[in-house]
Write a structure and sequence with these properties.
With 252 residues, the chain is α/β, with parallel strands linked by helices. Helix content is 21%, strand content 19%.
Length: 252
Amino acid sequence: MRTRASAICLGLLVAGLLRHPALAADNAVHSFVLSRPLSALDGAATPAPAEPAPAVGHRPRRANFEREIASRDTRYMADWIADSGDNRNMPFAIIDKKNARVFVFAADARLRGASPALLGLAVGDDATPGIGDRPLSSIRPEERTTPAGRFVAALDRNLGGKEILWVDYDGAVSMHPVVSAKPEERRLQRLASPTPLDNRISYGCINVPAKFFETVVHPAFSGTNGIVYVLPETRPVSGFFGSYEVEHTGLR
């Protein structure tokens, strides 16, 4: 990981312009050129450390999905986070790439909201080394992945004053409101479609509906860091994060 930028004002803005040509290009016509959040910790692009299985007599804790429908992998992951405390008492989000869905939770693992999302064009769980420093013209379609992993995330604003959530700064991946300045990409229509099959379009960033970002993402991560878990789509979730199955007791 690169060290935290030391300049705060002009230096940080210039660094944002030079540091992330790929991210700027992903949203070139949308003016999504970002600076690094001073509040963010370096996010780990690698799986979280393995958690030991709970001791005998441990009372299982599970995530509260309210009435939201979620995949087995998402529920498995959320329950493990709630039971193990891997989110370190911070709000967290789970990105289910297979189903192109985002789930945002409060620190106590109660669901705050869920939404469809647009993700990287290519199927894959690893970021190409140095991709955050490369110009758009050099990034091949197969390199446009949303990397899986456990990331420390923080809110920030881009140079246009629009709020975004940094996920992987070095990989130039953020979560932000969808922008539809390129009608031919049909991003709004892709978000509204009933299938996740057309939700792969970005260079790796996570696009969500503007209202969802405003009413769910912003309140959840405002004034605090949080954790974003991007589930793998080419490897098993359990082995990737070193997680365990939480005993099903019927308690929610």
